[in-house]
Every structure is written in structure tokens, then in C-alpha cells.
Amino acid sequence: MGAACILIVEGNPRLRSLLGWHLQQTNHSVHQSANIHHAKKLIHSHCPNLVIMEADLPDGNSLEFCQWVQQQQQSLIFMLSSQKTEADIVAGLKSGADDYLTKPFGMQEFMARVEALLRRQRSISSSPPISLDYGDLIIDLVHRRVSLKGSLIDLTPQEFSLLYVLAQSGGVPLTRSDLLHRAWPDSIDNPRTIDTHVLSLRKKIEIDPRQPSLIQTVRNVGYRFNREILTMNRWENNYQSSRQPQKVAPA
């Protein structure tokens, strides 16, 4: 079993430490959290391959958290629960869990299920994606079009390439030079070309292009795609109230 990045979200500190120890023995990189708030920060900073989560977390709705994790498009979910009824298991799986294990459980079964999930994750990762799904924002890589809240956004080919390169970087800031080489098939020597297209792109997808929150400027570096803002109700509500994208044919 190859090494993977795994996040354990479990309120019981003894169980959390025990699971972490066994996973570390097989050379996995393990991060631990006792609550949803801290877990979200770890997911954004470490992009785990697998999230192992308790079904009854102390600081929020675990099923809603499971749905949120699924929307991040980066992790499989392994739910652990003391609830054993069929209804509870179905609810967990429907909320986005890829596997469900009831407590108490044997460590051998736990590790075998982890191994099976990681094999599945590697298989998924080896297949090229057909879209990048950030909830309300979907980047269709097959038809090269972008939709926001179900409405198509009219982007030029250059704007689409720029948005795709920024989005697939996982929040890592990219320099103008990086963006030129990745987003443009032809050689362009002027990095300020990026600034022009970023400005145009912001006018089409930002709440307030003068104060951009989705495509952020990183001082002395370049730009980054802030996908975290798409999961915040404030951004969604503000966008819906401030502007409604028109339905147009793709470029």
C-alpha cells in the first residue's frame, strides 16, 4: 500500500491516536482533528487523499460536513459510527461517504478498508477528469465552458485556459511567467498579458471586480485561485443578490 495523506476527524482522543499510529506504521502522512472547524483548515492546507471521520462530531452536523468534503473534489471519505441501523448507514453513504464502518471494529478490518479506499483513490486519480466541480462553479474540460449557478459564462478561449490553470493549481500562487507558459500554447514574452486577461475574467465571475475574492492577487508573486471562498455562504449569497449571469452560448 503506497503512502497517502490521511486526515482523521474523531472526537475520541484515544481512538484518534490509535488509528493515527496504525496508519503511520504503513508510512502514511497522518493529520488529526477533533472537530469540524479545525478539520476544514487541515483539508485546505493538506488536501488529503482520504478523510476518516466520525459520524457524531461535537461541533456541527457531521452529514453536512461529509457533503462539504465531497464537494472539495479531492478526498474519499471513510465514516466511522456507533450508529448501526440501516437508516443511519444509508444516511451516511448518501451524504457522500465512500465507506461506512460501525464501532467497535477490529483494526485489521479497518486497515483493509483503508487500503481498498486508497486503491480506489489512486484509480480515480489516474483517470483524467472531465470537469472541475467547485459546487456553484463548474469548469467543463471536455466542452471548454464554465457555468456559475447553472448559467453559462461567456469566456474567450484565453480566459478559459487561464481560469483552468489557476483552478487546477490547488490554491498555490502562480507567477505571471508560469501562467503564460501553462495557459498559452504560443510563446508570449509580455507577462502583463496575464494582467489584462485576469481583469477581463474578474469582470465576468467576481462579485466585485474591484475587490476580487475568487482570483486573488498575491503580492510580488502573481495570482491564485481561492476556491475556499466558493464554500462560504456569504460569497454565494452576495453573488446571487448582486448579479445574475446571463445564459449564453459557449465560446
Overview of the molecule:
- By secondary structure, the protein is α/β, with parallel strands linked by helices.
- The model is unreliable at 243-251 (pLDDT under 50).
- It has helices spanning 13-25, 36-46, 62-71, 86-94, 107-126, 157-167, 176-183, 192-205, 233-242; strands spanning 5-9, 29-33, 50-54, 76-81, 99-102, 131-134, 137-140, 145-148, 151-153, 174-175, 215-218, 222-225.
- It is elongated, with a radius of gyration of 20 Å.
- Helix 6 (157-167) packs across helix 8.
- A hairpin with a 2-residue loop joins strand 8 (145-148) and strand 9.
Tally of DSSP β-strands: 12
The profile of the biggest β sheet is: 5 strands, parallel
Question: What is the distance, rounded to the nearest whole angstrom, between the alpha carbons of the first and last residues?
Answer: 44 Å
**Helical content band:** 40-55%
Helix and strand content put the structural class at alpha/beta
Q: Give the topology string: H per helix, E per strand.
A: EHEHEHEHEHEEEEHEHHEEH
Number of helices: 9
Strand order of the largest sheet: 2-1-3-4-5
Mean of pLDDT: 84
Radius of gyration: 20 Å
Poorly predicted runs are: 243-251
| Beta-strand share of residues | 15-25%
Shape: elongated
Key words describing this protein structure:
elongated, five-stranded parallel sheet, alpha/beta, 12 strands, 251 residues, four-stranded antiparallel sheet
Compact overview of the structure:
With 251 residues, this protein is α/β, with parallel strands linked by helices. The chain has helices spanning 13-25, 36-46, 62-71, 86-94, 107-126, 157-167, 176-183, 192-205, 233-242; strands at residues 5-9, 29-33, 50-54, 76-81, 99-102, 131-134, 137-140, 145-148, 151-153, 174-175, 215-218, 222-225.
